Amino acid sequence: MTEADVSLIQRTFAAQQATALRWRLSTLAERKARLTRLRDAMMAQREAFYTAFAADYRKSPAEVEASEFLPVMDEIRHALGSLKRWMKPRGHWPTSTMLGTRASVEYQPRGRVLIIAPWNYPLSLCFGPLVSALAAGNTAMIKPSEMTPAVSALMARIIADIFPQEEVALFEGSQPTAQALLDLPFDHIFFTGSPAVGKLVMAAAARHLSSVTLELGGKSPTIVDASANLTLAAETLMWGKFLNNGQTCVAPDHVYVHASVKSAFVQACRNVLQQRYGADGSARLNNPDLTRIVNRRHTERVAGLLTDALQRGAVLSTGGLTDLDQCYVAPTLLEDIPADANIMSEEIFGPLLPIIAYDDIDQVIASINAAPKPLALYVWSTHKEQIRQIVAQTSSGGVCINHCVAHFAHGNLPFGGVNNSGIGSAHGEYGFKAMSHERAVLRATPLMLIKLFFPPYTAARQRLIRLVVDTLRLPKL
User: Fold this and answer.
1) Closest by alpha carbon to 69, among 56, 80, 53?
2) Residues 4-26 as b or e (16 or more Cβ within 10 Å = b)
3) How far apart are CA 374 and CA 12, in angstroms?
4) Residues 6+ away with beta carbon under 8 Å from 209
5) Could you read off the pLDDT of 368-412 as tens digits, one per residue?
6) Which of 54, 155, 391, 459 is 20 to 30 Å from the Cα of 320, by its Cα?
């Protein structure tokens, strides 16, 4: 992998400063024009993206459309339709002590934004944050993943064609390129990736006190209770888990199933996998709808988790076939997994799904709370009280009830993690705000009540101040 030229990175960063200052005054029309250019350029390269994704990890055109194009197109459509409202300053009524003032919040571009994107959804997770950055009036420097070189190269050509480098620039490379970018004092950093790398990004940002949005991951649990619609749960979870062959940050990582319905649920999952991907290992290996693992190293990692679980006594319910040369791991269901198996502590990020029987929902909740907070939690139930209990007693970036993964695509919801699974929110207005400084603006009016608090503090003035404080029911002076 050829690394980006460090001096070019530094010159581009310097050149973007003047643009960022100028773009503070950018109009609605100018911002919408930039988004429209990005949208049109993507659509013009639609077929080329099919080829690039096939070259990188044999992703089908249908999945390219559904999981790469659709989220970005919807993000752009949402921004174009809502940007006028998002940009408008918002007035706020004065609180009791601020009578005689007028206040508003104005949304100012942060300035120069760095976007570091991962390999699992290289287009969506690169251009999605870029939409928010442009909508908010920022310049951007982008570092896509080196693990999807064909897609990264195509994105680089698109960016170079529609933006001067002093506005938006994309740099290909691996860790040294990322480090050269992180050494610079960006106004905001948007990173998507693992919690381990997220800590390094946050440490780099801390050196410059740069604000950050960290979209991380974790082991997102699923609960299927005795009241759940097992057919719908199996159909939806088998989609959410094996989309992109499990290489999804919000994919169900493991499933807790009530013991009374576990056998029926597992059989329903087997039926869905057979209908979608074929009846046997050979059919699934050759199924064009199954994306490959991104490279051999990651294939070996996922295969290692499977081997470790089986050696420790896990039961293979279906799947299990691996082919390292083809970067293939079959959709696999595992049961009776020992607690000390690596798959129970490491983020899987592949097509392996542990299924765990439970009897007591309190124990499941305790297990979830004992682990780092996940990016998502999925609950399948028709029992309203139990749903309320699970949601109230757990913490996660997002939660879906009788659904999975789809909250990522809901443009009016904040998407993000909590603690280990992320910091900050993205998408829609939440992405716009993440890329903006919410600037407080207070204006005086002729009624300057603050003068009542000016020195000298005579006895009468002190009594007045005490009266105001007492009226607010604060402790007496």
Assistant:
1) 53
2) bebeebeebbebbeebbeebeeb
3) 37
4) none
5) 999 999 999 999 999 999 999 999 999 999 999 999 999 999 999
6) 54
